[in-house]
User: Fold these one by one.
Assistant:
Number 1:
Amino acid sequence: MRVIINGEEREIPSMSVAALLGELDYEGTHFAVAVNYDVLPRSRWAETHLKAGDEIEIITPRQGG
Amino acid sequence: MPLTFYGKTFASRLLIGTALYPSPTIMQSAIRASAAEIVTVSLRREAAGGKTGDAFWNLIRELDVTVLPNTAGCRSVREAVTTAKLARELFGTSWIKLEVIADNDTLQPDVVGLVEAASILIKDGFEVFPYCTEDLSVAMRLVDAGCKVVMPWAAPIGSARGIINPDALKLLRDRLPDVSLVVDAGLGAPSHAARALELGYDAVLLNTAIARAADPVAMAKAFRAGVEAGRTAFEAGLMEARDFASPSTPVVGTPFWHAVS
């Protein structure tokens, strides 16, 4: 299935957000996820299914002014 | 009167950014030297397998400060609202420094989008710190939307020009006496920060002037002193400027008075 992750189109086997994060080796604890501009609380990562064309943003804290 | 933002009280009137320092260690030292209790942070995409965010976040947690996430770089209401929600999820705070940017060269706030985004976020339970221009009507719209804090720029972000339009900032202070006002962006020197506090502003927020100084830790101390001097002067009551001289030394008893006519 083709989705867009952080602005880049990718082919992924994962069907859920939780599986995708594992597949892509996101091991850190401090990141947040939005799918199609909807923010997904951590508690919903396992139950949220992905579909082709979804836009997924995975973000972490950074320096800012 | 201590500084209050959305019911939380702070001793320091200096808010400081976490970007552009020569090293993470200097960032931590400069923030400690500034005595700031509130720091701004941002959110960015994390590459697969990356741990950049974790490393940065651990540095911030060591400082034991209140975090104010921003929506820097957002150019639409939709982007800003989603970024604010991501920030709430990530940092566990309903505080958001709301930026909606209109123009690349000046980083001029899109004040129309800003008011719209602020309204949406406040209805969703956010406590919004909007980064805006010094325009009174925009500030009033933000207050109408439910903002208890308004943060007008002194000058464009990173420009170090200081307060370009003091009359407009003074007008904002006079017309919005019950709103917490913060001068955010464009300050280059501790004297600029002092001036903002002398005008009655509740606090200042800055980043580049400290982070890009030759010695950021020393500059952080200088800004801390500037902010304290400005606030103390405001509380002490500054005298009005006047057009002509008025002798400070007593005139009565001047020797040789009237000896030469």
Number 2:
Amino acid sequence: MNGASNIASRNIDLAVKARRGFGERIIRFVLAGCALVSVLVTVAIAATLIYESVGFFRDVSVLRFLTESQWTPQFVDKQFGIWPLLSGTLLVTLIAALVAMPIGLFSAIYIAEYAGDRIRRVLKPGLEVLAGVPTVVYGWFALTFVTPVLQSIFPSLGVYNALSAGLVVGIMIIPMVASISEDAIRAVPRALAEGGYALGGTKIEVVSTIVVPGALSGIVASFILALSRAIGETMIVTLAAGATPNLTINPAESIQTMTAFIVQVSLGDTPHGTIVYKSIFAVGLTLFLITLGMNLLANVIIRRYKESY
Amino acid sequence: MSTESPEVNEVIEQTPHAGDGAPPTDQLAPTLMSATDAANTTRTKIEIENLNFWYGRKQALTDISLAIQERRVTAFIGPSGCGKSTLLRCLNRMNDLIPGARLEGTVRVDGHDIYNASDAVVVRRHIGMVFQKPNPFPKSIYQNIVWGAKINGFSGQPDELVERCLRQAALWDEVKDRLGDNAYNLSGGQQQRLCIARALAVEPEILLMDEPASALDPIATTKLEETILDLRERYTVVIVTHNMHQARRVSDETAFFYIGQLIEKTPTEQLFTRPREQRTEDYIMGRFG
Amino acid sequence: MADLSKDIGGSVSAMRRRVGDALAVLFLAATMTGLVVLMVLLVDIVVQAWGWLSPGFLANYPSRFPEQAGIKSAIFGSLWMISLTGLIAIPVGVGAAIYLEEYARTGWLLRVIQVNIANLAGVPSVLYGILGLALFVRFLLLGRSLIAGALTMALLILPVVIISAQEAIRAVPSGVREGALALGATRWEVVRDHLLPMSATGILTGVILALSRAIGETAPLLMIGALSFVAFIPEGIMDSFTVLPIQIFNWASRPQPEFKHLAAAGIVVLMVVLLIMNAAAITLRNRLDKRRQQV
């Protein structure tokens, strides 16, 4: 120190380094490592899928993958057209959408705009329970309850069919549509609705012409996220929709989804390195790209509406 | 700078009131100080030079140069948004925590450039701060005081520390029988004095106060101001206030800020009776702000 | 124009009101649909499981003969699985949340990580199974073991743990951080002594909900090759294993009706476990709300 240290006016030495600096840096490093894990998981999923898919596409050209009309990797006459699995997936998703979009949206409107506090306190946990039911339970329900009920209405319906699986997948994603849409509806500023009431609008007029359109982007995002979830759903379709890759739009037929194919292969004793083993990665990659695209889109939409209010 | 840190640490760890060398002479106005006293008591503690500060692209402080005297209460006043709180938070590097904030210029404390020669944690350990809204920890009164001292290596008798700090903050008599109570059960004024006691427990040299009375009722404010006047004997206090009467009651010197600039800094009485600048006069006369 | 006094005394046209009422009924009916299905599901489970849920069912190992089949190894497997998953996912997830909330500088990198975590939460669980199969089972040679399953499950619930822990940490008032930092505390001292204790209940609630998702997950464990016929209780992390949902899936996928009943009995056990975990989460959340009100 250059200054004479005067007893009366003590000098602070700020040049001292914090004693705890070293430990602090280690902790920071470890915590950053934890955060990095989340990034590595994404990288690892993508890398695994791409790496094994490259092996697959070396044997089966992308052209065949996209143009052949049958998916029969386990047969002697192997065909690798993704369309039957894709159509099966889309068929189930379409049925689920027809169930979940109206019911989920109407539930959201009811909970956000109509239900009193007491009713809401019953409805919301109810929907949370519905969201918490394991998918294997839904699968069992589709197979042992919904299908027999449907069969009593349509006697020609087989044990495995897209309709039953699609309906139950739809029920599974209702809570997701409802809760995200409800958030979006609540995010619409109260003043907008009050403006509508001040002009003499009735409740339903204000809700349908001001509140719901105001929440539209959030509602659309909820649909996209829920449908992405439906596309990735595995256990319900594995149990109830069948295992026959089938290029059809008939909901009464047995089909196979991409996810159900992946499970089917892993259940069998497929040797590592065979074309069948590799095919699950190509299907997985297709599934990954579709759901990733939808999730990114939905997140962009949600971020935008959060900014706008 | 220094290679003899053990010795330096000894200097730091002297308790603020342990040095009896300096009798409290601050009741006298600085101008009346004798020459010998002046050497000890009007020394510059904090020296701000050409300080510029930005939040993102918005410049909040422009070319501030200011010296703050040791063991004086210096008040920063000015209309809201004038940068007085920003400047205060530059003095203990709290602005480091704000994303996108940028600072140019130097702030020296006892000759050390706090932004270049030091670590923010060390700076804050020596420069205490009391915030606008009382922010005690949701722990007992006792724990509130002991925590800061403990993390800074305090190894003495905690009971004595708690009592000494609470007495200095003029809170002891009100809480001595319930030190184990949660600090959230105290009134706003008590919480704020607890925050002062908490800051004193780490034995800072400087105490920064950011509108400490703004959330308090008039009675609590009066108690707080008395506490500040007591603290002046041992600490260098910088207080930001939007209340000109408060500045006049508690401070020795007052700096007036306007739109990010320092307009003038003079002894408080002079600023309020004979301001040099027209804008200062307009402000203290209530013509704007 | 219209006669105001008459209009105010009158009411909205009957047509407009009827449409409004009809739609309100429709909204209510839609909301009830989900709940009615839930009721039907729960009743169906109990009816189907009736008579099959016996002490023997809980104490026996799986069997080819439905009358002798039990779920003991699956219960123990699920307990092992959930404990290991928690041990891995909680420290990593909470650590990541602390880093993202308290250490990371805001900027494009942080935004990318946040978007990434949000997207990870939406990746189909079967793809985590593919990752587990390729990475843990084959590449790291962990085989079809408990640890391979737990690592897979930990990655699966990681985004949920991170997001809920971030929310809990963010809920701590910023005054606490500033107050502590102004005393010369380091970041970690603030986290350790203030932020973690204050957000512990919230973090725990999120963790329980994440683990209850893991306990019902089937697809990833099918992928990494959890077995359904395990006639022993795992004794170490390298043992092969089964879990409740795998056992349920196995029974549900058999054609004989007896096994459908066994599946129902297994579902009851699984749902009871879930109920206990959710009750714990709700109790914690209520306590948290009460404490927030006091503060």
